[in-house]
Design brief:
By secondary structure, the protein is an alpha/beta fold. The protein has a four-stranded parallel beta sheet with strand order 4-3-5-6, with helices on both faces. A two-stranded parallel ribbon has the order 1-2. It folds into two domains: 105 residues, no CATH class; 111 residues, Rossmann fold (3-Layer(aba) Sandwich).
């Protein structure tokens, strides 16, 4: 798993809301990366695996708009293309129970306040799959508005792509970099401490640029913000403060040498 903190945050959040969370150890990739790069036949076993593992789940909650879009938009088509009626029936039976995290909260559970605490200046980026495929609308923003302590700042060009697009960023690097530069400029103009989104793929792309420029702006998945609790956040802030003091003090001897140089 590339971003384990997101998965852990989803579990904390859902359990805090009173739900029992099961994390099947046998689950694998949804197949999106293979499908989007032309390996559609190779992605089919992943579709079968997903349907098999989650067949009996009451709800399948996924903190990734692009994964949910892959499942909703392509799984049935792949089963049809493979002329597998049994798989198609299983896919169609499972699809109504597959949810992106924010829509599960706002549409299935009818919640906009999940009891979160996150005392930071935050801006929200709407990922393409969430915006255009899943039509999440203002759901994520409504959830953020109800987080205690947060200062939510609108992002100019909210609907504009960050330029990642999976292998698009590799195959069309110049175009991707130009789109990323526009997005990061908008993020920096908000003077936010944290940029959030419903997709870690977007956040990975955006954070890469923020980090290379040494802006000090962090990224955090929506789940990590919604899972925030006052006591835990205060503990993290104390840890950051101690770490910052340690970094700034440094060995006195090294400081003297640097001054002479």
């Amino acid at each position: 798993m590339l971003f384990p903190d997101t998965g852990k945050a989803v579990v904390r959040l859902l359990e805090r809301l009173g739900h029992t969370v099961d994390f099947p150890q046998a689950q694998t990739c949804c197949g999106q990366m293979h499908y989007n790069t032309g390996y559609q036949h190779e992605a089919l076993p992943m579709v079968k695996k997903f349907v098999e593992i989650f067949a009996d789940a009451e709800a399948v909650v996924i903190p990734s708009s692009s994964c949910v879009a892959m499942i909703r938009d392509h799984y049935a088509k792949m089963a049809e293309a493979a002329d597998d009626a049994n798989l198609l029936n299983k896919v169609q039976a499972l699809l109504p129970r597959v949810w992106e995290l924010s829509e599960f909260l706002t549409k299935k559970l009818q919640l906009t306040d999940v009891g979160a605490y996150y005392p930071h200046r935050v801006t929200y980026h709407a990922s393409c799959h969430g915006l255009r495929n899943l039509h999440l609308g203002d759901g994520p923003i409504e959830l953020l508005k109800n987080v205690r302590g947060i200062e939510l700042v609108p992002l100019e060009g909210l609907e504009q792509c960050c330029g990642f697009g999976g292998t698009f960023a590799v195959k069309n690097a110049d175009t991707s970099s130009a789109m990323l530069a526009d997005k990061v400029r908008s993020v920096l103009n908000t003077r936010a401490e944290v940029c959030t989104a419903c997709d870690n793929s977007c956040l990975m792309h955006i954070w890469g640029s923020l980090h290379r420029q040494r802006t000090g702006v962090r990224t955090a998945h929506l789940a990590e913000i919604l899972a925030g609790e006052e006591e835990a956040e205060q503990s993290r802030e104390k840890s950051r403060a101690v770490s910052a003091r340690s970094s700034n003090s440094g060995p006195a001897r090294s400081g003297s040498i640097e001054e002479k140089l």
